[in-house]
Amino acid sequence: MTREGRLHVAVVGAGFVGTTLAAALVRRGCVVTIVARTRELSGASEVTYAWLNSHRKRPEAYQALNQQGLRHWRTVFGPAHPEYVHWHGHTVMVSDRLHKGAVRERFDYLTSLGYPAEWTTAPSVGRELSIHVAPDAIAANFPSEGHCEPEPIRAALVEQLGLSGRCTWKLGEAVGVEDQSITLRSGARVGADRVVIAAGNGSSELLSSAGFDLPMVAQHGGGPAWGFLADARVPAHSLCRPVTTDRVNVRPTGPDALLVQALDVDEAAGPEVEIGQSLHEEYRLRLVELLGREDVEITRVRVGHRVIPADSMTVAGPVDGNPKSRVWTIVTHSGITLAPFLAETVAAEIVEEREDPALETFRPQRFAETESESAAPSAPRLPGEQ
Ligand SMILES: Cc1cc2nc3c(=O)[nH]c(=O)nc-3n(C[C@H](O)[C@H](O)[C@H](O)COP(=O)(O)OP(=O)(O)OC[C@H]3O[C@@H](n4cnc5c(N)ncnc54)[C@H](O)[C@@H]3O)c2cc1C
Predict the structure, then answer these.
(1) Phi-psi sector, 39: left (phi>0), alpha (psi -120 to 50), beta
(2) Which atom of ligand 1 is nearest to the CA of 333?
(3) How far is CA 240 from CA 87, 126, 237, 316, in A?
């Protein structure tokens, strides 16, 4: 405790998860030290599609968690950042036979849960969004979904944390965590009442130094952990929401800019990939095909590194399963959709030393209790996967 009787929490990692958590802890009266390599946005939160959804989330418990994440964005977190959160839904339009089957199956599953979804026709999608439509395409809208701009939202949180007077930064690489202290590569130490490891793909190593084994998905190129995103300049495009199609997914990043994804191209993504002209050209051709216009420029292609625990599901809570524990963690895929809800829930658990049933299925202890027998998750390759 600090001299003023406040709980001191050290958060390792300042991606979208670490930053939202730090903000939630400060709101609940804690003093926070953020341990991070940089104050700038980096990691998975820097190269993310930032589609707010609970679209293809299985099993049911994970679907329920993502729906809670989406509701939290709608009702609590999004309204605090109205300029950077866009609720215009999401459209899927596919003509490939396999993709049609996947979309129909998902539509039925989601509507059976009461998730808003409606069939539409491809020609009406084509007219509304000015995109090319295959004659045999099927199309559906998912009106409760949205997208956001993580960078300015995170910057606003960092500013609020500075103004609170209760957040300090310790810049450097954390190399070990034990009980109530974090060791940095420089040899410096940060002591705190609680430590939360929210370091994305760096979490597993830090958890291991704290005596906890957190398996992550295979890290090889072409696997689920890696994906490209391309930035495109498209003057006065009229797309207002994410659109998922057979060969390319797009979402607006500004009135003249789109973010572009092609899931089958992600086979080539990995830690060692060289991003050359042919990749730029591949995205350009797919975009030209979708938009039916030639004045399209790919300005940048980046490779992103997804944060995915071995069973694909969120890991959140005290590492030893005890709500009075010193060491906690949050490691998750879909972290843009989930971070605000997880941050709020875990901050409350830490401060009140209680467990929230909403996170029951997502505790770190599930890896300690059972030999992990779940099949390795496949890479996202079908429309609507992420
Ligand atoms: C291509 C792609 C598309 C995606 N699309 C979506 C989407 O549409 N919707 C959605 O909800 N999610 C999406 N995601 C997932 C989402 O972006 C991530 O789940 C989320 O950004 C994870 O945030 P994080 O803060 O946990 O990790 P990160 O953003 O990776 O942040 C971790 C931070 O910890 C720091 N760190 C790591 N190790 C250490 C250490 N030892 N010492 C100090 N600091 C350390 C890193 O430098 C980094 O800044 C996507 C991800 C990718 C890659």
Answers:
(1) alpha
(2) 19
(3) 9, 13, 9, 33
Q: Which residues line ligand 1 (CB under 6 A)?
A: 12-18, 35-37, 42-45, 47-51, 173-174, 198-202, 206, 227, 229, 304-307, 332-337, 386
Which CATH number does the domain housing residue 168 bear? 3.50.50.60
Q: Token digits for 101? A: 């089957």
One domain for residues 128 and 230? yes
- Nearest atom of ligand 1 to the alpha carbon of 205: 41
Residues 65-96: tens digit of each pLDDT: 999 999 999 999 999 999 999 999 999 999 99
Domain stop point among 305, 321, 339: 305
Domain containing 58 equals 1-89+146-220+307-386
Per residue in 160-190, pLDDT tens?
Answer: 999 999 999 999 999 999 888 999 999 999 9
- Report the CATH number that the domain containing residue 116 is assigned in CATH: 3.30.9.10
Residues 179, 327: contact at Cβ < 8 Å? Answer: yes
Q: Which of 203, 315, 331, 336 to mutate to test the pocket of ligand 1 (most atoms within 8 A of CB)?
A: 336
Stated pTM of the model: 0.96
